[in-house]
Amino acid sequence: MKVGIDMGTAAGDGRPVEMDLEELLATRLLVQGNSGSGKSHLLRRLLEQSAPWVQQCVVDPEGDFVTLADRFGHVVVDAAAHSEGALQRVAARVRQHRVSVVLNLEGAEVEMQMRLAAAFLGGLFDADRDHWYPMLVVVDEAQLFAPAAAGEVSDEARKASLGAMTNLMCRGRKRGLAGVIATQRLAKLAKNVAAEASNFLMGRTFLDIDMARAADLLGMERRQAEMFRDLARGHFVALGPAVSRRPLPVRIGGVETSGRGGTPKLMPLPETPQADARDLILTPDAEELASPVPLPPRRPPPPPPQDINALLRMARPRPAAESAETQAEADPAQLDAVLREVLADPDSAFRSDAVLYQDFLVRCRMNRVRGESLDLPGFRRRVSVIRAGVDLESAESPDWERAVAAAATLPEEMQGVFLLLARAAMERAPCPSDAQVARACGSRSPGRARRLLSYMEQRGVIVLRTALAGERIVALPGLGWQTRPGDPAAPDPAGDPGPV
């Protein structure tokens, strides 16, 4: 049975443009266009027009398509509420019972979105042969799930997501899965995923590399690629066996439902006096003061890496007397003296811990330090304490021991900054400036310091507040301390790295 999906009208003569649904299921579709070109509107039109004829699954990273549930009966699956294994089982039941679904990934971070989408697509792909019914699988923002290059996510998540998208586009046809993928930029989408589509709808784009690739996919000459800059919102150039054998400008028709985001509209600002506005944004309410942000549960720290020097010493035979002397712990005073030498260099704050640790080991051998030296995790902890600027008397206090114990539960990149803030809070000193925080995390960039503080606040490690004069206050909910107001733009005072 041939089913024609009404996509809109031809931009030239206004005749209806239909997409052959059966041909689409066999040949797949790629949609490309910059943000605001009308991709989501196009996908919504396709989903609404084909909903009565074929089962659908929408992988929705922004939660825009959940409104299909009210009008067309799609089941919204909140991915963040399920584990990866549970999503695979849900996907298998989706295929078994032929239910149209929207996989809502809204609220999850990018890496978790990739893992959850990979699990769900894997469940659709691995369904029993008896349940291989035709299914339209729409993936919005496909460049997130099939990136052309490695990004900030882990290799494990990227490989799982890319593998699931490749299976969908390359091997899904025999299992009844028809991939419809939409992307803002072709250059960011993996080529082996994009190459499997035989139908294309190309919208407005401005970058030369994306225009050239779109022209190549449509079989157009490079000089014709400039036309993609002139396309209006909701206008696309279509090509493929399911819609047109020649490039055809199409104006996408209207839709019955709407997304939750939509296009921003200008509206007047509220008329609030400046004094009232300042109080509204800078004064915490009673609920904030009564319930400090709790620390999130922490994963157990990974086991420390093996000390290469210890392995070499174990492999090298030594006399019994020398072995006993080497296995003894090194003199803490000697280790402290070597640490002073390492951190006396003004550039030591901007070198990686691994480089500083190698310098430390070499200096230990040069100074003939006997016994076991610090391992790398112990070295990092000791350096964090030194950079925090705590004096010898305070370092032995119970309060500082609490701070060190709390820092030990945090990732290594946060420990030095946390101890710097804890020292200032414990001594009721002004909040460290961005430059001081940057030095504590091994950088010269105040921007990186601000980003790390914001990330620590998101994790619930600290609470940032702004005083009326624009000064910064940092509270440590886990310790019940807070710093005095301090100028975040103050310079980093040069001086000795502090007593050990």
Description:
Helices cover 41% and strands 14% of the residues. It folds into three domains: 4-252, P-loop containing nucleotide triphosphate hydrolases (Rossmann fold), CATH 3.40.50; 274-303 and 389-500, Arc Repressor Mutant, subunit A (Orthogonal Bundle), CATH 1.10.10; 311-387, no CATH class. The radius of gyration is 30 Å and the shape is elongated. With 500 residues, the chain is of the alpha/beta class. A hairpin with a 5-residue loop joins strand 12 and strand 13. The relative contact order is 0.09. It has helices at residues 21-27, 39-50, 68-72, 84-97, 110-125, 142-145, 155-171, 191-194, 208-217, 274-282, 286-290, 308-315, 320-327, 332-343, 353-366, 376-387, 392-395, 398-408, 412-426, 434-440, 446-458, and strands at residues 4-10, 16-20, 29-32, 55-60, 75-78, 101-104, 135-139, 177-183, 199-202, 235-240, 244-252, 463-466, 472-476, 481-482.
Q: Gist?
A:
Pfam families: DUF87 (PF01935). Residues 7-73 form the Helicase HerA central domain. This protein is α/β, with parallel strands linked by helices.
